[in-house]
Amino acid sequence: MTERDISRDISRDASRDILAELAALRAADLPVHGGRTLAYVYDPGLGPDTADLAHAAYAAMADVNGLDMTAFPSVAALENDVVAAAAALLGGGPDTAGTVTSGGTESVLLAVLTAREHARATRGVTAPKMILPVTAHAAFHKAAHLFGIETVPLPVDPETFTPDPAAVAAALDDRTALVVVSAPSYAHGVVDPVPEIAALAAARGVLCHVDACIGGWLLPYARRLPDAPAMPAFDLAVPGVTSLSVDLHKYAYTPKGASVVLFRDAELRRHGYFACAAWPGYPVVNTTLQGTKSAGPLAAAWAVLRHIGDAGYLDLAARTVRTARALRTGIAAIPGLRVLGDPPGSLLSVASSDPALDVFVVADCLRAHGWYVQPQPGHGGLPRTVHLTVTAAADGKAPELLAALADAADEARKLGPAVADPGLVEAAALIDPATLTPEDSAALLQLAGLGDGGALPDRMAPVLALLEQLPTALAERLLPDVIGGLFHGRPANLA
After folding, report:
1. Using the 8-state DSSP alphabet, how is residue 381 labeled?
2. Is the predicted pLDDT of residue 494 greater than 70, yes or no?
3. For the domain bounded by 56-304, which CATH number is listed?
4. Which residues does the record list as N6-(pyridoxal phosphate)lysine (modified residue) (predicted)?
5. End-to-end CA distance of the chain
6. Which of 49, 218, 252, 274 is least surrounded by Cβ atoms within 10 Å, i.e. has the fewest?
């Protein structure tokens, strides 16, 4: 054996060791395939062919820099195809323009930034406002924080969980830069009355953004099913809708890192671009918030869209909606549980109708059965819930999940509701978050059961019950410390 052969064998062994260590780390994660994780991941259940194609396309373009499409024209070619597909699906016309982003949050940020700049340039608005239902995604609050925009949150109906167009009309004024609606809202899975609200915004010369990040690649296909669910129109064909966001890494089932934000025309899109010639380096034009970015996610999205195709997505939608309906019917038959609103697609929000049954405890018990559902604290008079994101991979699994959910509900009743310590809640109400020291934060988190070196407890229900009772400003002060505790200094293991 030559020295080169020995070196190659050593390198191969080292690679295997590194990948084995990575697999060991992944063992603690929720599963991303199989339909048992009902949040965060989107699995079409199509087998290895689609995944292998996506990974190969990703790898083929991973080293291509999307910063400069004049140097890498493949980036523009792929993006044009992807944007055109999204526009065709979502009511776009010949003037529709779009941008591929890294995800729903970046798409939302670009839409809000565009609205701010458009309001300033066309109407002279220097202190902009954004009207949004309380059910709008947190990404809009992030955008408001980053871009200095005042939010005007509106309540939603406690039965339909959608905003009242009359409340939107009353809130519109000369400072309004953007009105936000959802199709559907993440928390409850319902579609806002987009046509009515978009018309009100248009009458005042205000932009209207539809957050279809989670529903944009599912609802158009769900509409085409023989027993199509009822839902209002929501896309760019609706008069007054000026922008729309849709995530490809959700129900288009592409790898993470791909979303599209569509605008009514290129002139509107231009307000979200950034250009800089005020330095001695190369002229900079950023179409997204990122500069350098891999073209891997874009290429993977392009490949998966072509591979699955229209007929494939229609079949995936049928499987998804069928499963969501079966779950909705089955949940209604479990004593003490109810699905909120009238969700037409794949998202279900489950609340308790029995004071002795705490859905936070149900979520903990269900996780012990190998199913993950996402707890959602109550807010502004809306009840605490657990959220289910149903994907095509869950097709056929509804009976198994419903049986596990019924067992979890029985266990949760025996355990009783999670109750926040009244004394701690009373003390928290007196705390000024602005003056909280790191030591104070650590002490509070310790009392809340989150002080063990950043480790999260096995049962999250008591923690969530406390979080729900904290003043919002204090919760937002403490949450970064909870997550920050997961990232700690330790000896590097990269040598």
Report:
1. T
2. no
3. 3.40.640.10
4. 250
5. 28
6. 49
